[in-house]
Amino acid sequence: MFDMMGMMGKVKEMQAKMKEAQENLKHITVSAEAGGGMVKATANGEKRILKIEIDDNLLKPEDREMLSDLVVAAVNKALADAGEKAQEELKKHTSGMLPNIPGLDLSGFGL
Asked: Main role (predicted)?
C-alpha cells in the first residue's frame, strides 16, 4: 500500500536539505587564472564573480585586447569550476534522498 504521509515527509525532508545546500553555495569560492596567473577571477557556488585581479603589466593600452581575452578566459574557468563545486555540494546534501535515475537532470534546481 502506498504511504502518502511517508512520501510527503520525505519530500519535505528533501526540500529542507536542498535549501540548506543552496544556502551553503555562497560560502564556496573558487579561483581560476589565465595568462600564467596574470588575470585571476574568483567566483562563488552561486556562479557569481566576486573578484577579478589583473597584473599591473597588463594595464597598457596596447594590451587591451589580450587583457579582455584573459579576463574572459579566467571568468569562464572560475564559473565552470564553481558550478562543479556547487553540484558536488548539492549532491552531498541530497545523497540517498532521490532515486538514481539514469538521465535525470536536476540542473534546473541548482544541481
From this structure: Binds to DNA and alters its conformation. May be involved in regulation of gene expression, nucleoid organization and DNA protection.
